Amino acid sequence: SQTIHQWPATLVQPVGSPLSLECTVEGTSNPNLYWYRQAAGRGLQLLFYSVGIGQISSEVPQNLSASRPQDRQFILSSKKLLLSDSGFYLCAWSQRGGTNYGYTFGSGTRLTVV
Amino acid sequence: RKEVEQDPGPFNVPEGATVAFNCTYSNSASQSFFWYRQDCRKEPKLLMSVYSSGNEDGRFTAQLNRASQYISLLIRDSKLSDSATYLCVVNTGTGGFKTIFGAGTRLFVKA
After folding, report:
1. H/E element holding A24?
2. A7 Cβ under 8 Å from any chain B Cβ
3. Closest by CA position to B32, among listed B106, B95, B109
4. pLDDT tens for residues A2-48?
5. Which position among A2, A31, A38, B101 has the lowest Cβ density within 10 Å, counted as fewest Cβ atoms?
6. What is the Rg, in whole angstroms, of the alpha carbon atoms belonging to chain B?
7. Are A110 and A25 in contact (CB under 8 A)?
8. Which residues neighbour A55 within 8 Å (Cβ) at sequence distance 6 or greater?
9. How close A100 comes to chain B (CA, Å)?
10. What CA–CA distance (Å, rounded) separates A52 from A50?
11. Among candidates B44, B87, B91 on the partner chain, residue whose Cβ is nearest the Cβ of A99
């Protein structure tokens, strides 16, 4: 069966520090991968999605970036965190092709920038 | 107008009650529809897909009205464990790239 792993679960970082969140998927090949952010009490905001290695699309301009160095690995990064980067970051995957597949989310990283 | 709109909530219901969540979407080209459940401080989890013919899974019934661009979720015989936020999700493109999440409706089921 397919599983998605995301770490760390919780992170407290100072303003201006770098960020690296990692997500890996097991049990499937060529997944579509996504990074979402959920601010406290708010809905999900799509940050990045990827259809393949090295292929990244950004939905929202910001100081974050994403990379996909391997088929089942998706990384979210920042060179310098802002206070407004605080939130719940969720990685997700879906099957390639078609529209009838839901998403499976990782357990999320709760980031607090102080 | 938001692309996906849900009842703002929260809904406070007693155990055993029937509760209905409503959702409207703006893009008539939307192709697939889902309900997700999100527990406090957890990730969203797929509850059920929504099909044109309507579908049922135990106490949960989902319906889609394409003409009115409306989706619903009905929970019968509410349990305490049903307390969560319910997210309406609409996919307007292929490959999941145009998946829009509603803001969610919070449900509190009380004993």
Report:
1. strand A19-26
2. no
3. B95
4. 899 999 999 999 999 999 999 999 999 999 999 999 987 778 999 99
5. A2
6. 13
7. no
8. A68
9. 6
10. 6
11. B91
